[in-house]
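Submission checklist for the structure archive. All mandatory fields must be present; incomplete records are returned to the submitter.

[x] Identifier: CHAD domain-containing protein
[x] Organism: Celeribacter indicus
[x] Residue count: 295
[x] Sequence attached
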Amino acid sequence: MAYHIRRKDPTMTDALRRMAADRLDTALEATEAQGVEERFEAVHDIRKRIKELRGLIRLVRPDFPGYDAANAALRDTGRKLSPLRDAKVRLDTLDQLVRDFSVQDDLLADYRAELRAARDRAYSDAEAGPLLAGVRVDLRELREASGDWTLGHKGAKAIFPGLGKTYGAARKAMEKARRSRDTEDFHTWRKHVKYHWYHGKILRPVWPEAIKAHDRLADRLGELLGAHHDLAVLAQEARAAGLSGDSLAGLEASLAARARDQERTAFHMGGRLLADTPEALAARWSAWWTHWLTE
């Protein structure tokens, strides 16, 4: 079942439950992965489904009394996967230093060997097996609970206030990042943009041509802001690897220059994506939805 609304959903509660069941079933299947390589993909997939679910319930948050409990359960389940995610990302980050910034591989060889051993240990049967089994229990509980998730309204009032609220949060986060130029503020901006991207995916059927173009821009902006955050992680990992002196100074100068370029592009893209007021965007998409239902 697809991650979007359908005309044949009797109510938005039915749509919520249907999409949640689909995401949770897919995540549950991934918890059965065996072997290191298969678990790399499985952890990525489970985290992706959890993010989609958090995006889904955020869309209906103003109309969903069970939001806080559901969001906390999803957040906590996702956090259990953090040791696996971090073990892989740290090694991938080190490889990116060598590939994209011409850092001499011999300077990082010993540290890379340590990270590789730590990653393989984390994804082994002994460590990943019990961890994924615990995640499976959590997801099964969420799967059962999602069958009772209930919204206060059947149609537009269940979704468009949440759409506007998330869009408004992305606008505010963009302006805060513009003022502060702080890495964490850019990261917060990315989170809100990604939520808005999920909302576009969910609502795309109401006017695919218009929303797909809008959502493509949201996706590109989210990826760019993710790359911006990666630059800060790269610098941290270089220091942890023991890089110092001219090598570290040169790398940090390159990272800072790339970050400035990314910020200019991000504000340009954000200015287009977030040009509406939240009220205007929600009203327009709601009108599209009403028309779509009568087609």
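[x] Structure attached
Curator remark: The mean pLDDT is 94. The two ends are 22 Å apart (CA to CA).
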